[in-house]
Write a structure and sequence with these properties.
Rossmann fold; seven-stranded parallel beta sheet
Length: 1178
């Protein structure tokens, strides 16, 4: 009989109101949930009928398992008491019990109340890909209507989103917002409420967007103040450093303290003005202190401070008046965008209802529509909700941390005023944000509930299951230390307090080899990191097995199947790990699923269907003829096409078949299948193709069972397509083509290799949730977090709302709302990444190893330490981390038992021993590739020696190695293009360049942007006569206009005062005084490849490359040349242009010297925006 802990017993027995169970990893929550149900339906007093329970899980497998376990438990009780009427009744009621997924429950509700909701009872739930196709058609129809009306507001909207691909950005924005609204209970109300946030009358500091950004800026100020104070403390250890740098750091400290005060009571403009007063200054380095560890630490910390100040100034770059004007402009764009979204949703619903289909999100939203009505900021229950809530005595929800707003509202509505809910979950394992899961729902409910006390029950109550029955104390200790330092309200939306700790409940034999391990692997090239980590893991597993590492309470020897490699993303890495481990004698497997449409057998078969439907399509026909089924060679195809060059391929094949039996046989089979397609389903046609051509046998020989499974899946998809009411080969091909066009995909067969029972599993962290392994490797931990979502033109968040870029002429730039929404999304993503890490670390039962690949591990840790403040990891430092490795390494640096590590890095010994009483030591290793390459060679030799393969002639083997291992001696040069442009090279070197998108000509307006103005000035300087312009600027402008050198828009855009200022300046005087002036001088020169890539050496560096370009202006002065380049970039400081374009100017200098035979004495960048110039060292 199972023994339960006190907390588990409370969770099983607590009655009288709603209960939330916060169940830590490995705490047995599913067992507790089943036991609670059993006791509720079998108790002597007031038993609950099992069909009066609504038990909701999030997967069909979980629901099925729960039903099975519940039925098994009832049957087990009946074995001991076969005539118990209560148990017999409950077993009978099991057939009507509501143990289901949320989708299943909502589907049954919608079918029951179909007459109220206006849908047909026999609606079909369409798959995601079918919904995408219909959605694409609906959007096309809606946009056509808007284009036809061609209102000024819609024209402005298209203008705001236009790019070189037309209105693709607008389409993506509409679909993105629509998908988001599927997770909002009252979507239209959300849109209306969000539009109100775009009111220019709200003071910036009181607006939703302003509050988010001020809060974020405060976190940067707090972080900077903390590390500045720590730097001041470090100076106490050295008098010379203190005397040299204390005044600057004290100024920094005073700046952040005063800025913090401004956040309390200052206006937006006051904060802006003060933020811009920061004095960058420079730390002074006394003689002999260049490599001093304290000096390096302080310098790294101040670099971090300066970056924070730069970020703060970027937030406050706009004045409140500028923001007010911008919000007013954006509100019109957002209003029209929302109108398009509403029209799209209406049309989308109309098309789905016409086909009698619904999506899963439709079913949930229809359930909300039935159960609740919006009321102010809340909702009221409908009569139908009250009716349904009377059916259930208790609402039980598993994995409650993964619900979204829609699902949460449904549970509230079917409950009895939220007084009979029992929800179970672990918010630290909420890792489905991409599905709009809202962990805040669980957190808020837990914070509001009373902590359960069996002696004094007050409901609603929260019960904590903190006993971990999965992992050793070494694993639990490491998890607790990491997350108590990382997980806070600010960084993760929740605190990792004592209630969240993993308390050891598992019993294992003592072991010296189970300490938490962090391995830093040094690499020379980042391309090697995956291979190095795979080789290291293979050696580690083989070594552990050789040394007799045991697992489990019975101390059985470690098997390969006891190990797992967890990856944040398996894309492009899982296959490499599997292949390398297998090659080194460590059996490994991974369920790698490729794109269904990328599978070769599917490409060929879809082309076969296209040929049958329309043989005049050349590419599909060519694909089929070249496929392994018919194997026409290139020479044969050339003969077929040779005499019929001006017809399509099918006509050529038909003509050639008259004199060639093989071609005639191919044509006969194609025509036979075409005839067959007129009388059968697509599924039957596919079966006929497989049989007639032996395609299945061919694919089986090439790709094994995986290819056969994909072919069978294609037949299954064809059956599903036709069961949805669609008919015909043409319709099926059109459907497949639309799926491919929309970037959709279908489930493909698994790429798992061979037997997987006793192999090292290579899986993603998401796939590992719910699983456990004795030994876990967290690999590729230094891979940066994915931030690509933040680069989208449209950002959307349920709390922060909607943020879009603004368009000014050809330039698209960030806005205050988009910046605020980006901050909120970034914080949510960081919180989720932390929960993903928690899931990864808690999969291990006995041994946990984190692997981090770094170019220079020690330098990496020293720089990371500069972000810490004397053993404190503040929330901002956590939020700015770029990888899992950063988080784990920060914790290693502040671990009280690792002063040895801090001394090794020369970052000083921290006084942290007072916190060491509850901690266990970690094993931290620094590994270079050479440390394990020799081991790998030995292992490879062992594998070869122990294999059963034939022994080949050594001469043949050596010859094969020589031929296949040939490396071109100048291989590095192959990476360098034969021809390059100077400006392209410069841009590749730069930190960042804003993208400029062209708007469609038909949407063009007459408004002149700053970019267009800069372009006009550039063109004037390119073609004007400097002397004539200086004497009479207007006359020179008129000349350029009359000669069509300047357009009327460019003519109007030119600021005459700025141009005159340039003409009166020193640079123009030097130009006009020159005896030789060359403008827009185009060149083609040969340069050494080493100038393009500093890593090239020897002959590779001397290889010649063609460089092309055009210099804006070259003039002769003192028998030497001066190169001038005009720049239109809108920068605040002209020195920024020097940083960005120094390389480009140096390349211009080399080119000018080569094609003129004169020396270049000076290179100048002239800023059209700033009306100033700066010399570049050359």
């Amino acid at each position: 009989m199972t023994t339960f802990t006190d907390a588990q017993t409370d969770a099983i027995n607590a009655q009288g109101g709603s209960v939330l169970v916060s169940a830590a990893a490995g705490s047995g929550k599913t067992t507790v949930l089943i036991e609670r149900i059993i006791r509720m339906i079998t108790r002597r007093e007031n038993p609950i009928d099992v069909d009066r329970l609504l038990i909701v899980t999030f997967t069909r497998a979980a629901a099925s398992e729960m039903k099975e376990r519940l039925a098994k438990a009832i049957n087990s009780l009946l074995e001991n008491d076969p005539y118990n009427s209560l148990l017999l009744r409950q077993r009978q009621l099991m057939y009507n019990t509501s143990i289901c997924t949320i989708d299943s429950f909502c589907g049954s509700v919608v079918r029951e109340y179909f007459h109220i909701l206006g849908v047909q009872k026999d609606f079909r739930l369409a798959d995601e890909n079918e919904i995408k196709v219909i959605g694409s058609e609906a959007l096309e129809s809606v946009l056509e209507d808007f284009y036809r009306e061609n209102t000024s507001d819609f024209t402005a909207l298209v203008d705001a989103f236009a790019n070189k691909n037309g209105d693709d950005n607008l389409r993506a924005a509409v679909l993105k917002i629509s998908d988001f609204l599927a997770t909002q209970p009252f979507g239209e109300k959300w849109l209306d409420d969000m539009l109100l946030k775009y009111s220019p009358e709200i003071p910036v500091e009181q607006s939703l967007f302003g509050k988010i950004l001020i809060k974020y800026a405060r976190s940067m100020v707090d972080h900077s103040l903390l590390i500045t104070i720590n730097s001041i403390k470090l100076l106490d250890g050295d008098e010379k450093l203190r005397d040299a740098n204390l005044p600057l750091l004290l100024d920094d400290k005073a700046y952040f303290e005063k800025l913090s005060e401004r956040f309390e009571d200052g206006s937006w403009d006051e904060i802006k003005r003060f933020a811009e007063t920061f004095v960058k200054g420079r730390l002074k380095t006394p003689k002999g202190y260049k490599d001093d560890p304290i000096k390096i630490s302080i310098a790294n910390s101040r670099d971090d401070v300066k970056k924070s100040v730069e970020s703060i100034c970027n937030i406050f770059m706009w004045s409140s008046e500028e923001i007010k004007n911008e919000i007013g402009y954006l509100s019109k764009t957002v209003a029209e965008l929302f109108e398009v979204v509403k029209a799209y949703l209406s049309k989308f619903s109309e098309m789905k209802y016409a086909k009698n289909i619904l999506s899963f999100s439709d079913v949930e939203l229809l359930t909300v529509k039935l159960l609740a009505e919006p009321c102010g900021d809340g909702y009221t229950k409908t009569e139908q909700a009250k009716e349904i809530s009377k059916r259930f005595d208790q609402i039980m929800v598993d994995e409650f941390q993964d619900v979204n707003d829609v699902q949460d509202l449904i549970f509230k509505c079917v409950s009895t005023d939220e007084n009979n809910m029992f929800v179970v979950g672990d918010v630290k394992q909420s890792i489905y944000g991409f599905r709009q899961a809202k962990p805040e729902i669980f957190i808020d409910r837990k914070d509001k509930y009373n902590k359960y006390d069996r002696e004094n029950e007050i409901f609603p109550a929260a019960i904590i299951l903190d006993m971990n029955f999965r992992s050793r104390k070494e694993v639990c200790s490491a998890v607790n230390f990491i997350f108590k330092n990382l997980m806070t309200k600010t960084s993760a939306k929740m605190d990792y307090g004592t209630d969240e700790y993993l308390n050891v409940g598992a019993s294992y034999p003592p072991s010296d080899g189970c300490n938490f391990e962090v391995d830093y692997i040094q690499y020379e090239s980042s391309d090697e990191s995956v291979e190095n980590e795979a080789v290291f893991i293979a050696n580690k597993i083989l070594k552990m097995r050789a040394e007799g590492f045991t697992v489990g309470k019975d101390k059985k020897p470690l098997e390969y199947g006891d190990c797992a490699i967890l990856l944040r993303s398996t894309k492009n890495t899982a296959t490499a790990f599997v292949n390398i481990l297998n090659s080194l004698g460590v059996p490994a497997s991974s369920e790698i699923k490729e794109s269904f449409f990328d599978a070769n057998e599917i490409k060929v078969m879809l082309n076969f269907l296209r040929c049958i439907d329309n043989p005049s399509l050349d590419i599909p026909l060519l694909s089929v003829m070249c496929s392994p089924v018919y194997s026409f060679t290139v020479d044969e195809l050339a003969k077929i096409k040779g005499n019929n060059r001006h017809t399509n391929l099918y006509s050529a094949v038909a003509a050639y078949a008259k004199n060639d039996s093989r071609t005639a046989e191919f044509l006969r089979e194609l025509n036979l299948l075409k005839t067959y397609s007129c009388t059968c389903s697509v599924d039957e046609l596919l079966g006929r193709i497989y049989e007639l051509t032996s395609f299945s046998a061919v694919i089986s020989a090439i790709d094994g069972s995986k290819g056969i499974k994909n072919l069978n899946l294609l037949r299954e998809y064809a059956r599903g397509f036709e069961s949805g009411g669609y008919r015909g080969l043409s319709a099926f091909i059109t459907y497949m083509d639309k799926l491919i066009e929309n970037g959709a995909d279908l489930e493909s067969s698994s790429g798992a290799n061979g037997e997987t029972e006793n192999t090292v599993k290579v899986i993603s962290i998401h796939k590992s949730k719910g699983l456990e392994y004795p030994v876990c490797f967290i690999a590729c931990s230094s891979k940066k977090f994915n931030k690509t979502d933040l680069s989208a033109d449209v950002l959307i968040d349920s709390k922060a709302g909607l943020g879009i870029r603004r368009v000014d002429g050809f330039c698209r730039y960030n806005t205050l709302p988009r910046m605020a929404v980006g901050v909120e999304i970034s914080e949510n993503e960081i919180a989720e990444e932390m929960r993903v890490l928690y899931v990864a670390l808690t999969r291990a039962k006995e041994k946990l190893i984190v692997i981090s690949s770094q170019k220079d591990p020690k330098d990496y840790l020293v720089k990371l330490n500069s972000k810490l403040a004397g053993g404190v990891i503040d929330p901002y430092a956590v939020m700015k981390a770029r990888s899992i490795s950063d988080w784990v390494s920060m914790c290693a640096l502040v671990h009280p038992l690792h002063n040895e590590l801090r001394m090794k890095l020369q970052i000083g010994e921290s006084d942290l021993m007072g916190t060491a009483s509850e901690e266990l030591p970690w094993q931290i290793n620094f590994i270079s590739p050479s440390d394990f390459v020799s081991e790998t060679d030995e292992r490879s030799n062992d594998v070869k020696n122990n294999s059963d393969n034939e022994t080949y002639d050594n001469f043949v083997i050596d010859l094969l190695k020589e031929r296949t291992g040939f490396v071109y001696r100048n291989q590095a040069v192959l990476k360098i293009p034969q021809k390059v442009s100077a400006s392209e090279l410069a841009h590749n070197e730069g930190d960042s360049f804003d993208k400029i998108f062209l708007k469609p000509a038909f949407m063009s307006k007459g408004n002149t942007s700053a970019v267009e103005k800069g372009t006009a000035h550039h063109k004037f300087l390119q073609f004007c006569n400097f002397k004539d312009a200086k004497n009479n600027l207007q006359a020179e402008l008129d000349r350029l206009l009359s000669e069509n050198i300047l357009t009327q828009e460019q003519f109007d855009a030119i600021n005459k005062d700025e141009i005159q200022k340039f003409l009166d300046g020193s640079l123009a005087k030097r130009i006009t005084a020159s005896p030789l002036i060359m403008r827009e001088e185009r060149f083609t020169v040969n340069i050494k490849a080493g100038m393009l890539d500093s890593t090239l050496e020897g002959d590779s560096a001397d290889t010649r490359v063609v460089m092309q370009g055009a210099v804006d202006l070259i003039f002769k002065e003192d028998n030497e040349l001066v190169v001038v380049d005009y720049k239109t970039d809108r920068v605040r400081d002209i020195s920024r242009l020097k940083e960005l374009y120094a390389k480009q100017l140096n390349l211009y200098k080399l080119a000018a010297e080569e094609f003129t035979d004169y020396k270049v004495k000076e290179c100048i960048i002239y800023s059209i925006h700033l009306n100033d110039y700066i010399s570049v060292d050359c």
